[in-house]
Amino acid sequence: MSFRVVIVGGSVAGLALANMLEKFNIDYVVLEAYPDIAPQVGASIGLLPNGLRILDQLGCYDAYRAKAEDQVYQHAYLREPTGKAYGYQHDLMAMWEKMLGYPMIFIDRQMLIQVLYSNLNHRERVLTSKRVISVDILEASAQVTTKDGQVFSGDIVVGADGIHSTVRKEMWRHAPPGYFPHDEYSRVPASTLCIFGISHRPDAYPGASQHNTLSEGHSYFVMAAPGNRVYWFLFMELKETLYGENIPRYTKDDEAEIVKQHFDDYILDNMTFKDLYDKRIVTTLAPLQTYVFEKWHYKRLVTIGDSAHKVDPVTGQGGNGAIESGALLVNALLRKLDTSPNGLNEKQVEEVFAEIHTGRFNRAQDVVQQGYWLQNAFTQRSTMGKLIAQYFMPALGSYGVLYRGVEFCSPATSLSRLETPRRPRAVPFEDELPAKPVKSLNQLSKLASIAITMCLCALGADLLHLPKRLDLAIDALCSMKISTASLLPVITFVVKIASLLAMALVESNRVGNKLTSWVLIAIFAIVNNFLGPGALGPLAALFAHWSCGLIVGRHVPVEAARMILPIVIIGYILPATIAISRMDSTSIMIWKNAPIICFMLARSLLPLSNPSGSHIADDEKLKLDIERERTRNMFTKADLPYIRLVHYSAFLMSAATQLINVYHHGSLISLILAGKNARLALLGFSRYDDLAFTLSSLMLALGAAPLSLRLRGYITTSQSFASALLICLGLPIVGPTATIAGMAIYRESVLAGFGQ
Prior knowledge:
This protein is an alpha+beta fold. The chain folds into two domains: 4-432, FAD/NAD(P)-binding domain (3-Layer(bba) Sandwich); 439-753, no CATH class. Helices cover 51% and strands 15% of the residues. The strands form six sheets. The chain has a seven-stranded mixed beta sheet, sandwiched between helices. It has a six-stranded mixed beta sheet with strand order 7-2-1-11-21-20, with helices on both faces. The chain crosses the membrane at residues 487-506, 518-543, 563-582, 642-663, 691-709, 721-746. Keywords: FAD, Flavoprotein, Membrane, Monooxygenase, Oxidoreductase, Signal, Transmembrane, Transmembrane helix.
């Protein structure tokens, strides 16, 4: 028995689904309302790695990419209302490709439709001028009736017919009261108005570039297009949010009136909106409706793409989401047909449709929220939006776009039964990882680490006391084995903090911690002054546990990685040596604040350094070139030798001091060595510092390697347990600091190992 799918709408969602069904010899028919399958309506479309990977599986990627001609790799700029650039996203498209294997490519929507249509072997199944007017649900099938009176039957009907979906309306008509929310379309909001278009490229427009020009109340997004053209959007905040049927259909007269008001707006510092609009080829004025419908299916009817979830074009995820939905449908359908090859009953069909909803609903809601966030920032609708647009976005640069992109694209589905062509990438998609990520435990892990850190900080700062019997037992052990005037605990402490500091400098200079590092410095300074140095160990463990453990944020600028060991030697070990030898208040104060000075020194020197090491950046153009080179270096792994030198140095030095302590005092006492040491007490350290640090190290080592890597799917459960066992065994043998260093070596090898 042949399974048949009736697809309503020759959209991106509809034709992509047709291509997928054809790959598995599932019968289909596509019904398109308009006489032309690929009309030119002035719309561009951007596909990101999550959509392009599926196109690659379908054999469409190379044809899609070829349509972009020489406009695949573009530089991106943020611009003020005057057109002046104030933020740069260097080599953005190339970075997308290096990160996830595919760039972000914009072409005409018409071109994508043509690519999908041309890739079909059975183009005769795509019928135009077939406007659907009704859908009926029968016992074992569904029937679609078109305006010209033709009837098409199938096992399921898929609505890929947009925000004004006829299939959705028919589902609502057939369903009993209460199955769908009452009058749900009245909830669909529009808070942004948009003129989008395609123009011939103005003379002032630079090639292979895209520009976000942000102003209060409106913004422009303009990008180079193939054929010496330009795609552009003018986003405008509506005075009030409109809903459902109250959202008007706009006319060309409305467009002309709006355009006049913006003619003098600067997009570039030497190009106005009038320059762009005067060279227009086609334009459209439309309200941007954004909404995720609560339910997407009823019996044998289902909606996908814009019919189920309409997103803001500013996110670039509309077409990608439509393609993902089709892949989810086909994956679920094939699994169900394996168990029931002679056809699916209504219950089985609904189980297939429920899988689509489960796989897409939260992701679709995330995209809608992302659209609100971006429009709030781009059109500066609030004080927070202005702060984000003016300070946060330029500070994040290319990494901010990549981080958010990877975070969203990597969990995307693909066609599970089609091979994915191999394309080099630094970050795997989630279905390519060694294990399935366990995202539900991420927040719980963070909350637990905060609670533990607060207790350990209080213990290290002598604000929390152990039970009296345990306290006396520790004192007895320490007094039996350790001289209160011994230098060994002091030397051990210096090596321990120096090693930890070196590793912390690695973490603070990762591109994934670009914005948070200054915040961490401030917190460390406050804690050091108010709670004392004993609280720094647990706090460092928390921040290291939370630090960027993502592949996308792993890189450390080479010039920063080179400086770490010299900074620690000069900035910490030298002041510590002076303080221990002199024991005067000034030297001790300098030593206690040395970690903060080292952090500030590392962050302050970085903007002045050239990756080649040849000279100092002293002008704006040179700084821009240096930043661009740093961005490109993110994928070279040239930082790894320096990071490994730091980690191995920390491991060897810490392990050596620990073994000396084990030899003199035994493994147990070496973990709580400070005890009542007189020198450490004079230097301002608590009697519980070593105990707090040991427990912090255990938390960090277990949290940052076995737990964190497993939750993200970077290692398997068995690997996680094996590394946890090694950590527990290593703690009494090589000591807490060397255990952390060993964890860091292991984590670095895992993160850097992907993409090889």
